[in-house]
Every structure is written in structure tokens, then in C-alpha cells.
């Protein structure tokens, strides 16, 4: 069972690493911000989510899913910005820079909420 | 030159915003750690049973007053050491009659009627009138729409074993949460504010805020302080800082839970938050320099105090920072990029305590709440609404409305809509 867990965790780590590398390699508008966003997301998620009540496999699975969603989301908007740049030139690049944190929080906040709701309840939850 | 000014403003404001975000991130981590390590519930030494007076100010509360008085009769605290004073504050409805009816049945329930000449001037004035009648060593306050648990007095009073503790604050839980989106968002805000924020401040020895209800204080201290300041719209925040400036501490008792009826329309939400924002800004002007110069407060209390006092200015600062950052990005400044992120994260914060989405999420998780988590993305709309509220409050402030001492008390109407959620 332990070996299976290790294999699962290793797989999820690989997914996360691939997402980071791919975001660095393929998404360049704005420069490297997609990778930075994913790194911040991972630090933020690991520091809080990993302290909660659940198995490491589930937490790693959710984290890797988050990285995958984040990568695809950023890739999609990268192509949107490339297309927009073709039509509207520099003004669209400015718009992208302004909107970029909003666009990323649009997946991070719901993903954070949904992830927390997948976890089993805490034993010491004292809400009436 | 304009760009340089904008740049300086943006850098400064986003750094302040970052300080708040880091503070709340740290609060969240502290509460997570605290919850993991806390396995044994607190026990109460039976020997500590000081005399307690409970004040319930009520102005036209006929729809809710009966329920809270019924709950008062169910309190498990030693009856011989308990008195409940209902302050019928110039009510024009049946509040006084309902209270009198209960008072006839239970000797420990006392009613104080205030005429239209002396009453209706706000909560602080009503509480001061009640304080004159109170005889208990400890005075607890409950709003008329609150429904406390039978053991709440014991849970609150136990914190006063420490002689340095001047006041204690319990935890309000929204009763009418399922009613609509407004009540659900208020519930989420309460979770972030109390389950994480207040708890962390208590654990870290910072400044847990006295909320004016579900809490209490030593009568001797409030008398020494001259009672509640009737010019203050948020007499609770004022008392919080008066306590610390006098060298006392406030403790948070998260296990002392009490149901409340949250505002259930956006209009009522505006009126309540506008009063809170104005009152908080008023208290900020009154106390901020005293806090900085205080010799009785520790450095960490001073820092937390200044951050707490300025919290209702933050939505405006964030908005101005957003506009400054936008202009800088449009003008091609590369400096704005990295500092842009904390400004946007702040858009997913609640205004009352500046709790960001991650803090609220952890609070809801610790409470064992699952579905309410899904509302976190809506925080941005609540935030934008609060920007308008704080903007209006700030305008009131700078136009001198507050400084002239005129108080337009905007009472929150309690319709008793939460009563249907009580198990009979």
C-alpha cells in the first residue's frame, strides 16, 4: 500500500513539474507570469491546504489538478492575447497585463473553495 | 512628475496592502496550528462564579425580544448571581410590554423603561442607562436579536479569572444564514472574522476586538472609564481601545457561541455597515495617536491596534491603488507589475476585518462548513459594495459631519426572520 502511495504521489509531483516547465516554455505573455502564478499557488496551497485533515494522496491529487487547470487557463488566455494582439496591437497587451491577476484569481478562488469542500470534516469542528 | 508621484503612491499603498495580506496569512497559519494542537476542551473551574448583570438594549424589538428573554430564562448560570436588565429604549411598539410580562414571571429579569425624551439616542446611551442599574461584578451585553446558548455566561465569565482581563468577546453565529445571498455572505464574513481573525489575535496576544454584543466587561473598569462614549457610533470599538490604553486586555472566547439575526437585504446591509464604517473611522481619529504613544501597550499591540483602527480606510486605499496601478501599467511602467497582484487579491477580502478569501475558506473548513465555501468567489461583489459604503462614510468624515458630534443613529431593524430556524 505504501509503495502505491509513493507511486501516486510521484505521479502527481511529475504532473506539477510538467505544468511548471510547460508554462515556462510555452506561455510568454506577460513574460513568465504564468509560471510565477503557479509557483505562488503551490506555495500558498502547500502552506495551508497540506495542514488539513486528509490523505497526502488526495491533497497531492488536488494540487496537481490545480496546476493543470492553472496551466490550461493561462495557455487559453495566452492564445486569446496573441489573437487580440494581432487585431488590436499594443492596447490589447496593456489590457492583458491589467486583467491578468483578475483572470488568475478567477480560477484560484473557486478552486480553493471547491478543494476545501472536498476534504473530510475536521473532528474538532465546534460550530453549533 | 505625475508618473513619479503615482509610482510613489502606488508603491506605498500596495506595500500597506501587502502588510495586511501577510498579517491575515499569518493569522490563518496560526489558527490552523492552534486547532491541530488543541485536543482537550477548556474546563471551567466551578469556584469562579462572580455576580453577572446582562444588559439587553432594545428599541422597537417586539419581533425578537420574547425569544431572547426566553433564552435568558434557560441560562445555566447560578440564578442568585445573575440579573438581566432589559433597557426598553423609548420603544413605540410592544417591546416594553413583552419585557414586563416576562419580568413578572421571573424576578431576575428587570425592565428599565426610557422615555422618548431620554431614550432613542443610540446604543451607547442605552447601555449607560443600564449600567447605572447594574450591580454585577461582570456586565455582559446582548443585542435583542441574539439567542445565546444556556452555558454562555459560564464560558464568557471564565476568562475574567485573569485580573488583567478587562473584557471578553464571544462568537456570533448567523441564525438566518439560509435565507438569501446577503445572509449567506454575512455568515461567511462572520466565519472569517471570528473563527480565524479574533481567534488568532487572542492566541498571539494582540487585540481581540470587543464587538458590543456576546461579550462583557468588568463593571469597575467601565465605571472608571466613565461609561460608554455616547458620541461614538461604534461604542464597542471605542471601548476596545480604551481598555488597552488603560492597560487591560481583551480575551476572545470562541467556544461561547450565540446565534444572531443577520441583516437580510442589501439596504439593511448598507445602513449597518455604513454606521460601522463611520464609527470605526471616528474611533481611529480619536485613538490612533494615543495608541502609538501609549506606554501601557506592547509593541505588537500597538502595531495590531494601528492596523485594526485603519481597516475601514483600506477599501478606499485599495481602490485608489488599483487606479494608480492601472495608470502606471497603461503608461508602460514596469514597476507596477509585481505589486499589482496584492492589490487584486485584496478585492477578494471582506471589509469588516479585511479577511481575504483564503482566511475565510480555512475558517469555514474549521467550522466543518462545506457548501458555504462555494460562495467565496462572490466576495469580490461584496467588496465592491463595501468600497461604496466606506467611501460614503469617509466623505461624511471629511465633510465634518462626525467631528461636529452629530450622531445619526441608524438602527438595524430586526424582523425576527431567523426565528423559523430555531428548533422549538
Describe this protein's structure:
The complex is a heterodimer of chains A (128) and B (424). Helices cover 81% and strands 0% of the residues of chain A. Chain A is an all-alpha fold and 128 residues long. In chain A, helix 1 (2-26) packs antiparallel against helix 2 (33-49) and helix 2 runs parallel beside helix 4 (90-118). The model of chain A has no long low-confidence stretch (mean pLDDT 84). Chain B contains 14 helices and eight strands. In chain B, helix 3 (95-105) links the parallel strand 2 (82-89) and strand 3. In chain B, helix 2 (65-73) runs parallel beside helix 3 (95-105) and helix 6 packs across helix 13. The longest helix of chain B has 36 residues, at 2-37. The N and C termini of chain B lie far apart (68 Å). The model of chain B has no long low-confidence stretch (mean pLDDT 86).
The oligomerization state is heterodimer
Regions with little confidence, pLDDT below 50 for 5+ residues of chain B: none
C-alpha Rg of chain B (nearest Å) = 22 Å
Largest interface: A-B, 30 and 43 residues
Brief descriptors of the model:
A: 128 residues; mainly alpha; 4 helices; 81% helix; elongated; B: 424 residues; alpha/beta; eight-stranded mixed β-sheet; globular
Question: How would you summarize what this structure contains?
Answer:
The complex is a heterodimer of chains A (128) and B (424). Chain A has 128 residues and is mainly alpha-helical.
